[in-house]
Design brief:
It contains 4 helices and 2 strands; from the N terminus they run ααββαα. The chain is mostly helical. β1 and β2 form a beta hairpin.
């Protein structure tokens, strides 16, 4: 009787998305933590509203984003990029640049478990 070959690819593919999603989420949380530290260290914290409105939000399957501000704390982009009367005090882009390697490591660690 001939040997029967079966593939684990469907099983691997089904388990990959939630695992990768968790790795990406952990990476986004690291970026958010670093952005909060950057705000504190660059002297941008006055009331604490913005630092408390840096959140990680699900944006789709295996997709997470770091959001700074909301409808009442709408000035994150003004702090990041500056205005006509205030110099820029970047906190989010430097956090992403600083943590990009760690995000990749988080996803790689998850993929190694497959």
């Amino acid at each position: 009787m001939p040997a029967k070959l079966s593939s684990r690819l469907p099983e691997i593919a089904a388990s990959m998305r939630p695992r990768v999603s968790q790795g990406v989420k952990r990476g986004a949380e690291k970026i958010a933590d670093t952005a909060r530290r950057n705000l504190e260290s660059n002297g941008s914290v006055r009331t604490g509203d913005l630092i408390n409105k840096i959140n990680v939000v699900n944006a789709g399957p295996a997709e997470w984003k770091v959001v700074a501000g909301d409808s009442t704390t709408f000035y994150a982009h003004m702090v990041e990029g500056g205005t006509d009367i205030a110099p820029p005090k970047p906190f989010l882009i430097p956090a992403m640049e600083e943590e990009q390697h760690e995000v990749a490591v988080e996803v790689q660690n998850v993929l190694r478990l497959l």
